[in-house]
Amino acid sequence: MSLTLKVSSVIGTLGVVGGSAAIVNQLTKEHQTIKDALTKVGYHVLDLEKEDSDWDTVVNAYKATLNQSKPFGNITDKVGLRKECKKLLNSDLNNKANYSSASRWCVKEETIKAMLTRNKYKELGEATSEPSKVKWTEKVRLLKEAKDNKIIVTFNGTKDEETLANKCKSLDSIKTHADNEFEVKFIWAREWCSEK
């Protein structure tokens, strides 16, 4: 085989290898795990390698859900919960049941208010005082026009800003583990009750 042919073969092989690496790299970037998605939403995903009181809090909340469906069966300790969370957090985002379980049982217990604050969202202020009232008026206007992610609130045409503000306050104390619809309510609070 001539030197030119050998060099061409090596260059061709390197081109194929390099192209394959680029494709794999692109696919890896597009592949999203449940952990990635939870982090993107704003959850504080529990550290699978760390022993801390956050795991105790979650295990205790899990054990307290006697009458509700438990996705992991009768787990009673951190070791069992961490094992299940590791499977879920590293799994593909396409499994909605896994995402739902992970968003409730593999994240730090937080209230909606604490999660908004940690993610750099600020409350709008009092609905009856300036300049906050202007912000609430705009949120009410946008909410009336919105088709998706609408917070459930009934307006009567008067004091709509206060009605929305009161609904928002009722969301503040909801905890991640206490409500199956936590994420929906968090998104409502993020979109309709705060600003970044």
Structure commentary:
The chain has 196 residues and is mostly helical. The chain folds into 2 domains: 34-105, no CATH class; 112-195, no CATH class. The protein contains 9 helices and 2 strands. The protein has helices at 3-30, 34-41, 53-63, 78-89, 96-105, 112-118, 132-145, 160-171, 182-192; strands at residues 122-123, 194-195. It has a two-stranded antiparallel ribbon. Helix 4 (78-89) packs across helix 5, helix 6 (112-118) packs across helix 9 (182-192) and helix 7 crosses helix 8. The longest helix is centred in the first third of the chain and has 28 residues, at 3-30. The model is unreliable at 3-29 (pLDDT under 50).
Question: What labels would you give this structure?
Answer:
mainly alpha; two-stranded antiparallel ribbon; disordered N terminus; 196 residues; 2 domains
